[in-house]
Amino acid sequence: MLDKHPFNSTLETGIRALVVLEAFYPRHCDLMEMTWFDHLIVHTGDIDGQDVPESLHPDLPNRTGELLVRRQLVERSLRMMQQMHLVDVFETEAGIEFCASEEAPSYVELLQTPYSLALKERARWMAGRFAQQESVEIRELIESRIGRWTTEFTTDDTSSGRSA
Fold first, then answer.
1. CA–CA separation, 154 vs 139, rounded Å?
2. pLDDT grade for 144, boundaries at 50, 70 and 90
């Protein structure tokens, strides 16, 4: 079932997740990582560095709290993209992991609005920065930039992702 509102909907979040997974291909990402990347792709300004792209979304004061409520939405969006054959799901010893399917690049290529192009640019930048890092390294960055409490809360439920 699709949400009534396009913003922060399952569809919007799913497209964002697909863009991230396509940029990270062939790396598999668990739900925890996808929740972090869903935040970072629109709030790149939360990361330090000289080559960091400007955030796509406004830097609202309580934006870090978004991580607390987005996990279930990210999970639903990934399942929706799986049903559309755009995301493959793997059950591993570490937990459930997601990866862009073979059909994902042709779909992502069709996204040509200015916002979509900016999203893809940030996804490629994130992949360059994080694709070779272990989950624990990314978690340390999230804790230092966004907050330990947020990462611990979002990793409390490890039923569908790896715990760090």
1. 11
2. confident
Are 125 and 63 contacting, i.e. CB atoms less than 8 angstroms apart? no
Considering only 29-33, 78-82, 142-146, which range has the smallest mean pLDDT? 142-146
How confident is the model at residue 150, as a pLDDT?
57
**31-42 and 66-83 helices, crossing angle to 10°:** 110
Instruction: Output the CA angle 54-87-59, nearest 5 degrees.
Output: 20
pLDDT at 20 over 70: yes
Omega of the bond prior to 105 within 30 degrees of 0, cis?
A: no
Rounded Cα gap, residues 24 and 126, in angstroms: 8
Q: d(Cα 43, Cα 64) in Å, to the nearest integer?
A: 9
Our separate counts of H helices and E strands in the chain read: 7, 3
How far apart are alpha carbons 56 and 69 in whole angstroms? Answer: 19
The contacts of residue 72 (CB under 8 Å, 6+ apart) are: none
How many whole angstroms separate alpha carbon 9 and alpha carbon 4?
Answer: 8
